[in-house]
Design goal:
Elements (H helix, E strand, L loop, with lengths): L7 H9 L4 E2 L2 H10 L3 E6 L8 H15 L3 E6 L21 H18 L8 E4 L1 H4 L4 H7 L6 H6 L1 H8 L6 H4 L1 H16 L1 E7 L3 H15 L4 E5 L12 E2 L2 E2 L9 H9 L6 H8 L4 H8 L5 H18 L1 H15 L10 E4 L6 E2 H7 L6 H9 L3 E3 L2 E2 L6 E2 L1 H4 L3 E5 L3 E7 L1
Parallel strand pairs: 2-3, 2-5, 3-4, 5-6, 9-15
Antiparallel strand pairs: 1-6, 7-8, 10-13, 11-12, 11-14, 14-15
Helix pairs in contact: 10-11, 12-15, 12-16, 13-14, 13-15, 15-16
Family: Belongs to the class-I aminoacyl-tRNA synthetase family. TyrS type 1 subfamily.
Subcellular location: Cytoplasm
Protein name: Tyrosine--tRNA ligase
């Protein structure tokens, strides 16, 4: 990189590792130096909760606001009805308006933990406000004429789908036009001059910039973040149990804390810079710790990230539970509780592992037991057909697989 930004925001973006690409780094830097800039990131409402994969860009919006600028979180109440086809092998299932609104409600609470939506702060908008009322013929004439089908087919997100001879519906093909129109409308309505997103959104962002230039002859910009993988090559945000949700009702604060506590040693410093507010020098110091000391850095990471999302009390409670479970062999107050009906008992330990969600198949359960990885109330279990009844469960039975997976089973 030859140009060295002077604005606070871009300095943070580069120093902490958020930058993948920018359409015009120098022009954006000069605009940021001249005064507050408004930027947005869009979120389609395809699930009831955001997940850890979204957290990088939420933190980017947080730093955007902390450096004196105005962030917009754009809810895709309109675009969710179409579904983003980018780098997907098949069409997303279509959701009803009621399901979309329910998902938006679940997502909004998360943003409030990271951004200030006060009178002059961040804005939360919904693109259904302008997309739902579009007249199709007018839209084709005024907006569609600015798009080249040849160019749209050349975007990697579309080309890769077609190269694999996988169907791309006309509905999905319209998505990139609608997202481009979002940027145009946000500029018109809110003087929004920057769209940010993951690097898989680069083509969609460029479309919005080109459309705004063609329709209004205005200069706006795009900035993308890298698509993160862990040091061992896994996609960031995925765990053995599935998506790492940000809503506490879908993933407990304790399990969220555990996800970060189990970070690979090589990722600690990088994740501290991306997912916490700690100064960069402190992130580097913690990330450079070796041996057993790196575990203390992982606890700091888990506490800082969990504290931002769920509050400092939840983070402290999760740490205390982890210490009791791992260091003292106790039950821990924050362990996920699984209730089994009395009429479903007794069950074999293999069935128990499945019902508690610790394993996904009987084959996996048998392997874990054969390797000595199963403990009930801290006692090892070697017989896969051993029976678990109401008397054994009593007031609560701690089920442990290895050092990291634990559930508390109760009789309902």
């Amino acid at each position: 990189m030859t140009y060295r930004p002077r604005s606070d925001f871009l300095s943070v973006v580069i120093e902490r590792g958020y930058l993948a690409d920018c359409t015009d780094l120098q022009a954006l830097d000069e605009a940021l130096l001249a005064g507050p800039v408004t930027a947005y990131i869009g979120y389609d409402a395809t699930a009831a909760s955001l997940h850890v994969g979204h957290l990088l860009n939420i933190m980017l919006l947080r730093w955007f606001q902390k450096t004196g600028n105005r962030p917009i979180t754009l809810m895709g109440g309109g675009t969710t009805k179409v579904g983003d086809p980018s780098f997907r092998s098949e069409e997303r299932p279509l959701l009803t308006p009621e399901a979309i609104q329910s998902n938006i409600d679940g997502m909004q609470a998360v943003f409030a933990r990271y951004l200030d939506y006060g009178d002059s702060g961040a804005q939360m908008l919904n693109n259904a406000a302008w997309l739902d009322g579009l007249n199709y013929l007018d839209f084709l004439r005024d907006i569609g004429r600015h798009f080249s089908v040849n160019r749209m087919l050349a975007f990697e997100s579309v080309k890769s789908r077609l190269d694999r001879e996988q169907s791309l519906s006309f509905l999905e093909f319209n998505y990139m036009i609608l997202q481009a129109y979002d940027f145009l409308e946000l500029y018109r309505r809110h003087d929004c001059r920057l769209q940010m997103g993951g690097s898989d959104q680069w083509g969609n962002i460029i479309n919005g910039i080109d459309l705004t230039r063609r329709v209004l002859d205005r200069e706006i910009w795009g900035l993308t973040t890298p698509l993160l993988t862990t040091s061992d090559g896994r996609k960031m945000g995925k765990s053995a149990g599935g998506a790492v949700w940000l809503n506490g009702a879908m993933l407990s604060p304790y399990e969220f804390w555990q996800f970060w506590r189990n970070t690979t040693d090589a990722d600690v410093g990088r994740f501290l810079k991306l997912y916490t507010d700690l100064p960069v020098a402190e992130c580097d110091r913690l990330g450079a710790l070796g041996g057993s000391e790196i575990n203390a850095a992982k606890v700091v990471l888990a506490n800082e990230v969990t504290g931002l999302l769920h509050g400092t009390e939840a983070a402290a409670s999760a740490e205390a539970t982890a210490r009791e479970v791992f260091e003292q062999g106790g039950a821990g107050a924050d362990l996920e509780v699984v209730t089994i009906g009395a009429d479903a008992l007794p069950v074999s330990v293999i069935q128990l592992l499945s019902q508690t969600g610790i394993t996904t198949s009987g084959k996996e359960a048998k392997r874990l037991i054969a390797e000595g990885g199963l403990r009930l109330n801290n006692e090892p279990v070697a017989d896969p057909q051993a029976q678990v009844d109401a008397a054994l469960i009593g007031a609560g039975l701690k089920v442990s697989v290895g050092k990291k997976k634990h559930r508390m089973v109760q009789v309902g």
